[in-house]
## 1
Amino acid sequence: MKILIIGAGNMGKTYAKSLLSSYFTSPENLYLLDRKIIDEPFLKDVPLANRITSPNENLSGADIILLAVKPQDFAALQMTIAPFLHADQIVLSIMAGVTIQTLTDGLNTPKIVRAMPNLPAQVGMGLTVFTCSAALDKKELFIIQNLLNATGKSIYVEQENLINAATAISGSGPAYVYYYMQAMIEQAEAMGFSKAAAELMVNQTFMGAVHLHNQFDLTCAEWISRVASKGGTTEAALKSFTADHLDHNIKAGLQKALERAVELGK
């Protein structure tokens, strides 16, 4: 299966590397289109002729075209690639905010997949939420899900508006985690720990907590109750969080992210 990736930024390179390492495609069947020739160690077996800097007939020969460019670049890009596309190809977009209808109209092709991955895809631990146009059949949808799973796990949704919600939750989510981790690291240092020790404490706490959560069939609320004994230190912190309406503020921030995702699609 021939895969052509347009855009060789972080996510474009992530998909290229993942598709090769998972044997979803072969080096001979992987193509990259970017403003400059991409030279990375993991691309050593990809023919130089497959790394192109302007649209050409290679686009017509691809089974799947992955759009990994910035949303603001799509308007100019669509005019240069549309002449090479045909109705049998699947176009997979990971551009935030660009709707299926916009992609269909701009590229004049019916088989469109819209997906929202997140940063941990770079280490095979990503989460991608995706949907598609009605033109894809079940076999093609299965192929796309296998492609996306090369970078972690995926969730299919029928309603396209949930892609914006996924952008607010899982797409932006790693930044929220790092924001909370940074606050904990800074406070650990303020309490007397070295920077290295503070980072180790917080990193291991997050990894351990998630791993533990995944090993047992307990809700987050149940895990909180197991850690927080009455009158103890955890309860003191949780009472402070509640008094400051931390849960409300988090939810409000997620709503702002959703609203911004919707704005980007207009």
Note: The chain has a mean pLDDT of 95.
## 2
Amino acid sequence: MNLYKQLEQNAKKNNRTIIFPESYDARVLDAVKYILQKKIAKVILIRTDEKIKIDDHNDLDIIDIDFYKQYLQGYYGSRKLKQKDITIEQAEKELSSPLAFGNILLKNNFADGLIAGSVYTTTDVLRNAMRIIGLKEGNKTVSSFFLFTFPKESIHRNKIFAYGDCGVLPNPTAEQLSDIAIQTSENFEKLTGITPRTAFLSFSTKGSAKDDSLNKVIEAYKITKERKRDLVCDGELQFDAAFVPKVADRKNKDGAIQGDANVFIFPDLNAGNIAYKITERIGGAFATGPIVQGLAKPVMDLSRGCNADDIVNMTRVISNL
């Protein structure tokens, strides 16, 4: 299955509009040129003092940063509700950044999604999104996941995996871990069309080890089974019991996951982040993410080490959510 080819075909049908606040980054402009050429999405760029070196296109809008001023009073009012001592000058300093202004445009339905992070940090991207866009109705947790595909020479070439959370929550509670599992599983199915089989990972399989740190993984699994009865999930599982059928037959013979998991939920950010980079660097996988989930509107975070291809892939993803 060529995931990104399918996502691109769907994106063209969906015809979404995506905001790129970092229009001064050459990687972003290279990606935008390709996105427009292939008609993957319509694009909004935010112009700062620097001239944007890109040809005119019917599906491209360029908005000057100075237009933030017409939203300043509304932004100041909303900020003052949560931070009573904030001044109009502080609010203006916040809103005059391309990232904050891009989120305001998204909130006001100028676009369907926003992609940033080639220059801004993950903290900047998420803080602005949570402050301006807010959480999805009924949701309490913002998290992320990575999608993994493999080159044709890999033994896993026909497989697609999701890892969560690898980029947002350092030490999630059992309830947050359950949110991560449900959100990641639902988005995995939405993007791939594949039924999720979700494993709550640990250093123990069904009581093979004892430690207080295991409690939240076990509890997260129980909460998820109560909240999402139709989700195929299992835990707590060591990675080999979740991934290798022969090992599962020995360690988890009667479990719901028999070495056939495709969504892997990590107990904390240390484990998730390390695992995703090992999978990418040693395993040779193609990683797309972090794909942010849980916000009222789609906002995606890039790695500051990304290239134009990564930005194009994220555009394919966000246009399918």
Note: The CA atoms of residues 115 and 315 lie 8 Å apart.
## 3
Amino acid sequence: MRANIGLFWLLAGFFLLAAGVYSLWNYLVYGQLEIVGSMGIALSAILAGFIAFFLNMVKRSQAGQVFPEDADTDVDDADPEMGHFSPWSWWPFIIGLALFFVFLGLAVGIWVTIIGVPLALVALVGWTYEYYRGNFGH
């Protein structure tokens, strides 16, 4: 996590520098400030700074070194409760496909969105209740 924090702070500094250079260059060449590009690069710097700050807060709340960062440990030494994941589940793929149809419909035509919205709702319900039916039911 230390490496990620350092990389995001580096990215924030780079984007901040790039925003300044971009703004100055546009002003010198065209005689006016180009707002969209300057703000886009500056907001990228702010986003990278937010992510670095968040990761730093998470690291501080963990109160010490986590196992994946320690060179003397194995992967199995980490906390077993890292979350609950379903490697066999097809529902995330179906939700992704449904959202693809929804956003494609925004670009192509509303009829594609009409196909995607019900598919997304069915996939969301299926993913939510996946552990209440079949072989994995509680």
Note: The mean pLDDT is 86.
